[in-house]
Amino acid sequence: MTRASRRGPYICGIEAALDVVSGKWKGQILWELAVHGVRRFAELRRGLPGVSEKMLAQHLREMEEDGLVHREVHAEVPPRVEYSLTEHGRTLNQALGPLGVWGVERMRREGSETVDAAESSHG
Amino acid sequence: MTRASRRGPYICGIEAALDVVSGKWKGQILWELAVHGVRRFAELRRGLPGVSEKMLAQHLREMEEDGLVHREVHAEVPPRVEYSLTEHGRTLNQALGPLGVWGVERMRREGSETVDAAESSHG
DNA sequence: TGCGGTGCTTACCTTTTCGTAAGGGGGATC
DNA sequence: GATCCCCCTTACGAAAAGGTAAGCACCGCA
């Protein structure tokens, strides 16, 4: 797993925060959950074009460990698993707001191809 | 280099911003430059315990490419190279503020060892 | 004459991350 | 009865990131 560097002693808050969001899909997962409130595994999968089941499951597990995501398993058939943000996940999302705005500015500066949804920065 | 994924088409601003700060030492480099204004290579090296010359040079070059860092070479003997933040670097640093605060909160929550300077979150 | 400081670069190797493909157990659907 | 959906897990391998060590060109200092 990625436990080697994670949760290391951090020099500053930025490190501690980046450690939790660094991961190819974590930003988008945070976004999806912030926008939709509650999402099932397959819904997230469809919302993140290109993600593999392995990476999605892995990221979700790490984010759960980090206290960002709440995972609720309904003992049904077929099994239903619902993901949502915890309070910490929501505050993280808010803390990411300014960064998202900065990112949109950067995209604008570089004239990089913007995918339609980018306008909202992060929620 | 890391050009493979960098500057890819981004889905949201967060991605565009994270792309620029993700890197083991970039947060701390940003911090050092924000605190001290101008720093020489060897000063940065001393300010980032554990960093190798290779990684420092590589990160600085990437951050220069990304328009965050200004590099000024003085044609002297011995050569003197000074690094400072550009305007974009400074605004990025500001955008990271809330994230740093969140990170400090997280460190506090987890009772992780805090290195003294962590109190200031990121400047 | 040799060492240390300046600001890097290069080669090589390990660690971490990500992707691909497959399987699995149970139920519903065709 | 075959296939699809659900939510994953495992095994394997490629790519990216990071670390180690050495070298370089020049100079001041002892």
TrEMBL record, chains A, B:
Highest taxon listed in the record's lineage: Bacteria
One GO molecular-function entry: DNA binding
The keyword Transcription regulation belongs to this UniProt entry's keyword annotation: yes
Domain HTH hxlR-type: 12-111
Gene3D superfamilies listed in its UniProt record: Winged helix-like DNA-binding domain superfamily/Winged helix DNA-binding domain
InterPro entries: HTH_HxlR, WH-like_DNA-bd_sf, WH_DNA-bd_sf
Protein name (record): Transcriptional regulator, HxlR family
